[in-house]
Amino acid sequence: MKILGNLIWLVFGGFAIFLEYILAGLALCITIVGIPFGIQSFKLGLLALWPFGQRIEYMDYAPGCLSTIMNILWLIIGGIWIALTHLFFGILLFITIIGIPWGKQHFKMVSLALTPFGRRLV
């Protein structure tokens, strides 16, 4: 069932979100300072490509204030726009009864798009 959900996900906005993350990651990796943000964007892109069957957890150890600073910079650089894209697709899919499971995946990814540092994908 996860495979079917992921295949339908690709058709209804998943591939567009994946491309958005990959393009953002490539743009961020151009500079040395943006490489950590680009790597995080690539990880989020892989989640956006195949989200069913994966969970998001906070890291067991305390990443410290560096994680908070990185999240603030991420939010300023472009995290808000990716989160708004997830929110748009989530609302669009929630309008239909059939699209609710895929809308839930987008809503799950909104919080991750806003603050990705200090979390991991399981």
Can you walk me through this structure?
The chain is mainly alpha-helical. It is 72% helix and 5% strand. It has helices at 2-28, 35-49, 65-95, 100-114; strands spanning 56-58, 119-121. The chain has a two-stranded antiparallel sheet. The longest helix is centred in the middle third of the chain and has 31 residues, at 65-95.
Summarize this entry quickly.
The chain is mainly α. The protein has four helices and two strands.
Global geometry = globular
Task: Determine the N-to-C terminus distance.
Answer: 18 Å
Query: In total, how many domains does the architecture comprise?
Result: 1
pLDDT below 50 for ≥5 consecutive residues: which ranges? none
Number of strands: 2
Query: What count of helical segments does DSSP give?
Result: 4
Tell me the β content. under 5%
Keywords: Membrane, Transmembrane, Transmembrane helix
Domain Inner membrane component: 4-54, 69-119
Protein name: YccF domain-containing protein
Transmembrane segments: 7-39, 72-100
Q: Secondary-structure blueprint of this entry?
A:
Elements: H1 2-28, H2 35-49, E1 56-58, H3 65-95, H4 100-114, E2 119-121
Antiparallel strand pairs: 1-2
Primary descriptors:
single chain, 122 residues, two-stranded antiparallel sheet, 72% helix
